[in-house]
Each structure stands twice: as C-alpha cells, then as structure tokens.
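Example 3.2
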Amino acid sequence: GVYAVLNLAYSWRLKQVPVVDVSIIASGFMLRLLAGTVAVGIPPSRWLLLTGIFVALFLGFAKRKAESFHEEASQRAVMAHYPPALLDTYMAVTMTATLATYSLFATSPEAQLQHGERLLYTVPVVIFGMLRYTYQVHRGHGEDVARDMLRDPWIIGAGVLWLAIFLSHRL
C-alpha cells in the first residue's frame, strides 16, 4: 500500500528533490518499524517512534554527506543541491533531535516502568555511538550504514555495551 506508493514516487521523480529524497527513505524505514511492532503485538512508544524517524533522517543525511566526498561526475543528481555545510547542519539537527527524543524515551514513565533505570544508563552510550558515527562519516565512510558500523570497533563496542546495560537486571 503506502510503502509501495512511496517507493514508486521516490523512483519516479522524488529522489531528485533535496530533503524529500531523504524524507521518503526515512518514511519507508518508519513504516517497516511500525509494521514490525504490529507484527509482534507491541504498542510503539511515541518517543521511540520520534527517535526512529530522527535517526532514520540522520542516517539518510549522513549517507548523503558520505556521498558528497565523491567526484561530482559519480554523484547522484540530487547531490548538486546539497552543499556540504547544509548536510552538516542537517546531520547536527537530526542527531540532536535523535538524542533528545531517545533521552525522553529512556526517562519516560512507561520506559521506567517496563525497564527500570537501565535505559537511562544507555543514553551516554547512544551519544557516543552517534558522535563516533559522525566522525566516521567525516572520514569518508557512511555510504553503507550497516557495513561501516560493523567495521568500527568503537561502534561495535558501544552496541555491545548498550545491549549489556539493557539486558542487565541489577540496574
């Protein structure tokens, strides 16, 4: 339904429109996230949904930033409309929004009730992970999010630490 229409619109023309291109990709991610929560019967938290959209936008703009390091001839057409400083601004804004909404999620009464204090202790780990990923993007990595995250031992370490904190029952 909606996902197919978004993909068709993106492929047809909207991939050439700055900001709209990344927004459509982020919307597709959010639709998959919502479908996943429905499939497993978990009602999505509003803070987690906001965090999801902001992190999807952040990763989309980070990918565009990574692409900006290529020769102009090999860049996708939309890149001509993305000055590097603007991509830095978009990344900073969406990273800030991600961290704010994740922090609000981690400290929300619902999260505290379900997970205790554990999520609160993950906030610095998430901050580190996003800053480290931003560092990697500015070093020319970030076009393939999963591959580039799995190649950075510090990001892997942050992921393992986040998981250890989340799974801890003592906190």
